[in-house]
Amino acid sequence: MSAAAEASAPAAAVAEAETVSVVAAPPPEDSAPDLRRRLTYLMLFRVALITLVLGATTLLYWLGDADLGGPSSLVLYGIIGTTYLLTIIYVVALRRLRGLTGLAHTQLAVDLVIASLLVHMTGGAQSAYTFFFPLTIIGAATVCSRNATIWISMMAALLFILVGLFTWMGLLPMPAGLVARVSPIDLSRSLGLNLAAIVGVSMLALNLATQLQRTSASLASERTAAADLLTLHSDIVRCLSSGLLTVDPWDMVLTVNQSACEILSTTPGAAVGGPIESLLPGLAGLLVGLGPKGAIQRGELAIARAGQPDLVVGISISPLADHGGRFLGRVVNFQDLTDLRKMEVSVKQAERLAMVGRLSAAVAHEIRNPLASISGSIELLRQMPQSDDDSHALMVIVTREIDRLNALLSDLLDYANPRPLKVAPLDLSELVRDTVRVFGQDRGLAGVTVDARTGEHSVPLDGDAAKLRQVLWNLMRNAAEAAAEGGGHVVVELRPGSEEVAIRVRDDGPGIPRELRDRVFEPFFTTKSQGTGLGLATVLNLVTDHRGTVQLESQPGHGTCLTVRLPYTGERGRPASPSEELER
Questions:
Q1: b/e string for 260-272 if b means 16 or more Cβ within 10 A?
Q2: Could you count the other beta carbons within 10 Å of the beta carbon of residue 329?
Q3: Cross-strand partners of 554
Q4: Cα 362 from chain centre
Q5: CATH fold for domain 424-583
Q6: 393-408: buried (b, 16+ CB within 10 Å) or exposed (e) per residue?
């Protein structure tokens, strides 16, 4: 097993014991950043040591008038130059190689060779440079595993003994002028002392290597756990359907998730770094009085946006602190409640309309019976010969008002107690054209023109033809009355789509004020002196029965447009194309 594999095994064991990774961790490689860093430090230390020690020796030779061109000086020059050259080679290899364990072993082996050569050339066991062997062992402990350190220690001790003995015995060639002859006792003393130093340093180096290995394993485990937590945090924030952003103590945006950008119609680049008030106007009111450790604050904001629909958001604000409890800002979590609030308004309106409908039906039945009696009595009085002209005129007025009241009750009953739909296949395009043609014959239009734009091809649909004619008739009647006060034009347009068909009734009247638009579908609400306020309420009920929707668009001074959208049902999933119409 390689040293790198031995070093990675404890790290994997510790990581597995301390945490469960949520993502697949990559396999450990020799080119870990910490090993690269330690090799860099080792190379810098080697160059500095060689330069300092051997340079100082050369300086002492020069001060002592020694021969700087002699064998000893040449050996020192050669070792210094070799060290510089090897360092350049190591730097290039460090940048290009991925697996650095082999490079570390190579450097340590070369260091042992240089130390052996230096000790041999400077006297063998009596050399002043025997400390290079313990230094190499320490270097091995810093960049290699425990087993590799043991091997380097054994090789250092063996090389020192062999170099010392072979140099003393003359078995190794030495430069001319260098003699390494000492007594056996002195040789034994030198070998023993230096060997003891090597063994002692080896023991300390083994302990250092063990501690470094454990520290590296723990650090790798912590890095894996931190990476997993960061990935988990990013996944959670990214998958949130609600908006989430963080602000600093000065209410400047620090982070924002994708959902928040979608809700607020912005981008992370435009949001981060800006004031929170620009994203959520009115939030400052919720932040007032919140201390660094304040409780969670909840509220609701209505945001008016230029050129876009208004937005209603529910907001939750909580403090943001680091692991030490230091206040960093706030976390703002919010959800888009616009559709929910619209739905609540629709439900309340439906409940109110249902209650009014039940009451209206009961009242209409109670009123219609006495009206029939009154109408019959008036007819009898009109036929009496003794009635004068004034009485006859009053009876005509009463009869007319009874008829108007009876028409109002009929509308009220149609709204409150409509008959069930009679759904059948129909051609919506033909229905619209026929209804517009009949409506155009009404003498009460007072100069208003109604234009139908239905296209040439048919629009098949399943629905109640009578109810849909009633819807269209009420819409055109309201549009004509409004157009009479404006330009006098009403346009009825049919727009088939892929999943639904839209009927647009547009007039060029004075329009509806903004404060009244939410009430136009309420029963009995009208701005006309002779209106009943049931026309649009009945339209809404009939369209809802067809599973459709009604949309109001109006601008004061630019007219009003009411759009009825009806979904296709049954086999009529789309309008017929012109080619299909010709085939029919």
A1: bbebbeeeeeebe
A2: 20
A3: 560
A4: 55
A5: Heat Shock Protein 90 (3.30.565)
A6: eebeebeeeeeeeeee
Domain boundaries, given as residue ranges, for the chain: 3-231, 241-336, 341-416, 424-583
Contact in structure between 509 and 560 (CB atoms under 8 Å):
yes
pLDDT tens, position by position, 186-202: 888 888 888 888 888 88
Dihedral angle computed from the Cα positions of residues 568, 497, 555 and 512, in that order, rounded to the nearest 10 degrees: -20
Nearest one of 255, 266, 75 to 177, comparing CA atoms: 75
- Report how many helices (DSSP H) and strands (DSSP E) the chain contains, helices first: 17, 12
Quick one: which of 129, 124, 131 has its CA closest to 182?
Answer: 124
Mean pLDDT, to the nearest integer, of 121-129? Answer: 81
* E-strand stretches of 190-290: 243-247, 253-256
Looking only at the bridges linking them, the beta strands covering 500-507 and 489-496 are: antiparallel
Residue with token string 């981060």: 272
Q: What average pLDDT score do residues 145-151 get?
A: 87
Classify strands 449-453 and 489-496 as parallel, antiparallel or unpaired: parallel
What residues have CB less than 8 Å from 216, skipping those under 6 apart?
7, 11, 34
Q: Which residue type occupies 398? A: V
Q: What is the pLDDT of residues 378-404, one digit of tens each?
A: 777 777 776 677 777 777 777 777 777
Contact 331/318 with Cβ under 8 angstroms? yes
Domain 341-416 has CATH 3.30.70.140: no
Between CA 313 and CA 304 the distance in angstroms is 11
Locate 239 and state its tokens. Answer: 């998958």
As beta bridge partners, residue 390 has: none
The token pair at 441 is 């014959």
How far lies 361's CA from each of 413, 531, 535, in Å? Answer: 6, 19, 16
| Mean pLDDT for all residues in the chain | 77
| Superfamily name with CATH number, domain 241-336 | PAS domain (3.30.450.20)
Query: What pLDDT, on the 0 to 100 scale, is given for residue 73?
Result: 67
> What's the token pair of residue 269?
């680049």
- Could you tell me the pTM of the whole model? 0.44
Indicate if the pLDDT at residue 23 is higher than 60.
Answer: no
pLDDT digits (tens, 9 = 90+) for 527-567: 665 666 677 878 888 888 888 888 888 888 888 898 999 99
**What sign does the dihedral 168-172-173-174 (CA atoms) show?**
negative
**Closest among 187, 314, 319, 185 to 246, alpha carbons compared:** 319
Q: What are the tens digits of pLDDT across the range 343-392?
A: 887 787 777 767 766 776 677 767 767 777 777 777 777 777 766 777 77
Tokens of 99: 């697996």
Q: Are the C-beta atoms of 507 and 479 separated by less than 8 Å?
A: yes
Of 539, 545, 547, 546, whose CA–CA distance to 521 is shortest?
539
pLDDT, position 414: 66
Q: What is the pLDDT at residue 419?
A: 67
Q: At what angle do helices 3-18 and 184-239 cross, to 10 degrees?
A: 40
Short-list 411, 532, 535, CA closest to 477: 535
DSSP 510: S
Q: What distances in angstroms separate CA 375 from CA 382, 386, 412, one per listed residue? A: 11, 19, 19
